[in-house]
Amino acid sequence: MMKLLAINGSPRKTRNTAAILQSMVEGAIEAGAEATLVPLAGLRFRGCVSCFSCKLLNGPSYGRCALRDDLAPILDMAHEADVIVLGSPFYFSEESSLLRACEERLWFQYSRYDTENVTLSPAKKACALVYTMNIPEEAMPQYLLKGAVSSFNRAVMERIFSCPCELFFCCDTLQFEDYAKYDNRIFDPAHKLERHRNVFPKDRERARELGRKLVS
Ligand SMILES: Cc1cc2nc3c(=O)[nH]c(=O)nc-3n(C[C@H](O)[C@H](O)[C@H](O)COP(=O)(O)O)c2cc1C
Asked: CATH topology for 3-214?
C-alpha cells in the first residue's frame, strides 16, 4: 500500500495549512493509500547542526540524520514514505522556520557531494510543497520574490526525491477568527470571511484531488 506523509510546518496545528494538508491526506486515503499528517508544532527539535555524520564514510549514520530529537521519528517516517508533502505558511515571503529546520535535516542527509549521483534517498518519491498565505493570487509575483523561493525549493525536492514536485498555493487565507479583536488596517474582514466561506472549500477540494493524484 502506498504511504503518504504530510508534514505541517505551521506553528498552528489546526488552521489553514493543517486544513489543506488534511484534505490531501483524505484524498490519498480515498485513493486507497495510507496517509498521515504530522504537525511540527510542539516538537522539540533543531535544524541541521552540520555534524556531517550523514557524510562520514563507513559511518553508522551515513545517508541518515544522526540527531536524536523529536524530529528523528518523523525523518524515519519520511524515509519509509512513498509520497512526501511539506506544508508551510509564508512568513515574510519565506517558509516558516519550523519547516525550514525540518527541511535542512530531511534534505541534507540525502544530499550527496557528487555531480552525478546526487541523492542518497533510497527511493523515488512523488512530492509536493504546499504554501498558504495572506496575499491574494495577483500579488504573488510582487511579494513572493517572483516565485523564487518556491521554485528553488521545488528544484531541491526534485533533485533529492527524483520525481516531479507539485507546487500548491492557497492564497488570501483567514488569519484570525475575529478580525475586530486585532490591530489590522489592511485586510477587509468581510472579504476575508467571504473568501473563507466560498473559496477556501474549493482550495480544500483542489488539495483532495492532489492527494488522490500523488498516490496514484
Ligand atoms: C510571522 C508571520 C509572517 C507572515 N508573513 C506573510 C507574508 O510574507 N506573506 C503572506 O502572504 N502572508 C504572511 N503571513 C500570513 C500567513 O502566511 C497566513 O495567514 C497563513 O495562511 C497562516 O497559516 P496557518 O493558518 O496554517 O498558520 C504571515 C504570518 C505570520 C504570523
From this structure: Rossmann fold (3.40.50)
